[in-house]
Amino acid sequence: MYLTENIALANKKTNQVKMDLDAFSEAAECLKILAHPHRLMIVQMLLSGRKYTVGELCERCGITQPQTSDHLRLMQRCGFLRSEREGRSVYYEVCEPHLQDFIQCIENRFGKTG
Q1: Does domain 19-110 have CATH number 1.10.1060.10?
Q2: Lateral strand order in the sheet of 52-53
Q3: Could you tell me if 68 and 41 are in contact, meaning their C-beta atoms sit under 8 angstroms apart?
Q4: What is the spatial distance between Cα 21 and Cα 109, in angstroms, rounded to a whole number?
Q5: Could you tell me if 59 and 52 are in contact, meaning their C-beta atoms sit under 8 angstroms apart?
Q6: Which CB contacts under 8 angstroms, 24+ apart, belong to 88-92?
Q7: DSSP 16
Q8: Where are the domains of the chain?
Q9: Reduced to 3 states, what is the DSSP secondary structure of residue 2?
Q10: pTM over cut 0.85
């Protein structure tokens, strides 16, 4: 009897869905946006607490300014980043607090990089 009760409880727990399919679809789209090495590098840099311009990011990432701008635009559209104009410069920063945990998970799993 004990075994069947545990199996029934396990089945009940596995059948509980905490999010609906639409929420998972939205999450998958956002994860696709992050699933790029340069975008992950940009997020990691921005999580350092420092704001960066497009020029600074493209120099540090070793990619062109148009490529960097495209990456930033995608991440802004998904709600991960925001930009702020100061004079003639535009600075980017992370506005999604959960990205810290996400990057921490990646760093823990794959090793920290400088």
Answers
A1: no
A2: 52-53, 89-94, 81-86
A3: no
A4: 28
A5: no
A6: 89/53, 90/53, 90/54, 91/51, 91/52, 91/53, 92/42, 92/46, 92/51, 92/52, 92/53, 92/54, 92/57
A7: -
A8: 19-110
A9: helix
A10: no
The residue written with tokens 């409880």 in the block is 9
Report whether 13 contacts 64 (CB < 8 A): no
Per-residue pLDDT of the chain (114 residues; tens, 9 = 90+): 455 454 555 555 556 668 899 999 999 999 999 999 999 999 999 999 899 999 999 999 999 999 999 999 999 999 999 999 999 999 999 999 999 999 999 999 998 555
Backbone angles phi, psi at 95, to 5 degrees: -120, 0
| Tokens 């995608």, located at residue | 74
Contacts for 75 with CB less than 8 Å, ≥ 6 apart: 33, 34, 39, 42, 43, 81
Helix (H), strand (E) counts: the chain? 6, 3
